[in-house]
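Researcher: Next entry in the queue.
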Amino acid sequence: MKHEDSGVVFDIQHYSLHDGPGVRSTIFFKGCPLSCRWCSNPESQSRYPQLMFYKNLCIGCGACAAACPSQAIVLSGDGVHMRRDLCQACGRCVSVCLQNARALSGRVMTVDEACDEVRQHWRIFMQSGGGVTCGGGEALAQPGFLLSVLTRLHGELGFHTCLDTSGCAPWDVLREMLPQLDLILLDIKHMESFRHKEATGLGNEPILRNARELGRIGFPVLIRLPLIPGFNDTLENLRALGSFLAEVGLRKVEIMPYHEFGLTKYGALEKEYSRPSSTTPETGRAVTVLRGCDLEVLVHGRRDEEENPMQQSECAEYKQ
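Model: Structure for this entry, 320 residues:
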């Protein structure tokens, strides 16, 4: 695979506590082959920079319209409107907005720029057992850039590296990253390909194939289950997932409870958010079913049962 010197990043977050062991920096790569209906980072799906407009912060001063070279911003009696078909995501309106109502998501970064930003935190990595996580979006969607970043961080600087991925990529692409990785966080969203495609835009075949291959070679993997009410929290799907993971030898699972933290971003992108019919996933049921398959299960943000005691009645209801 050809190394690439630059790529598109939409954020670099420091002091991350839940993207792998220790305290970490997380590089968020822009672009994803999936379009999950519940995605908490909708700005991550497109590979290209995007303009985000938070209308609730806008005071209608018109500075943005005056600065826009594409005439993509229109002032009218009922406020400020965007012509996204004309917007070039140049960011000039962002620089003149004093209310922070506009933000540009996504920028081209070189390997040097991305790695220099995270290496400043090397003392924290060393003291906490942390490192750097590459996520997204989907980092594997920019394979040449990802390989260059991992080679620098892991191969040259010796940092602990982790890939947070949907697994929706060819096995040959993922396999080439493995020498530069210490851990993979792999999402498995649904075991039935049709249902997976219905909610994400693509089937799950490459994801399950990659999971099977990672289990076969014994690579360190933490499976992540984003628990979406009415979609993948059914007994049938949980049992199928548990059986599959036990079969392929991937025995560590982290349940990611449903949330709506990214809801305001949909408005800022003028995209529709598809809310589940219920917003209360059966977390206790998922824990019980998966542990019943002899898997090691934890709930995201809750590291042990003393911090998160499951109600005994809830567990008993689903023991079968």
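Model: The chain has a mean pLDDT of 91.
Researcher: Noted, moving on.
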